[in-house]
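input
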Amino acid sequence: MTMSDTTPGVVARLRRTTVGRSVFRSPPKVTPRDRAAAHWASFFLHIYPVKMRRREIAFRYSWYLGVISTVLLGSLVASGIYLMFFYVPSPNQAYSNIQTIQTDVTFGQYIRNVHRWSAHLMVLAVAAHMARVFYRGAYKAPRQFNWVIGVTLLVLTLLMSFTGYLLPWDQLAFWAVTVGTEMAGYVPVVGESVKEMLLGGVLVSASTLLRFYVLHVVVLPTVIVVLLMVHLWRWRKDSMLDTDRPVVEGTAQPELEGSATDG
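output
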């Protein structure tokens, strides 16, 4: 008797114990209904539909631009956390910290380049993703709400790139942020308030560096992650909504993939 022969019996006995019943709340996955019940009962899987169209998980459907954007965000978070160990948001130390990261810190130059190129590529990937969604008309009913979230994520991605620009505290960053905040000041009604909020005063100073740092490493990433979770949830829930295509009796319907819990 092999290990594979005894494993199902061991799992079944474990599920019948008091501890097993407290852990495994759904019935054994025997029938499609059982698999669906397990799918809905799982915290990690309930955001996914039980079935979805095969074409919607194909490469040509989205070019995986959303996946690429999410992976780049993960790269930014991981590399950013590493860089935070060696960076102090102070005008007296910021530039020297960047030099130290590039010359003395183990893998410092590599991690900083990964962080920088991930930021550039994320802007391109998110913009390309939005363009594809727009030209395919995927923003139309009933997906308008998710389109608004996507546009918000694009704006937040640009703000992430902008707030990170000042952190090296060199001349290029200083004058780029000066020009950017001056442009923000010309926005009607709220321009001056936004400019003062970003600068922490009337000129680029230590307060500006601290505010940009807090926005870059705490505020904007938190908002992006929360909205991204909602975005993915709505995308999964909306994947089966296709009200623009009436069902005609006698025509073949799109093929559906099996339960996401199968594989």
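quick obs: The mean pLDDT is 85.
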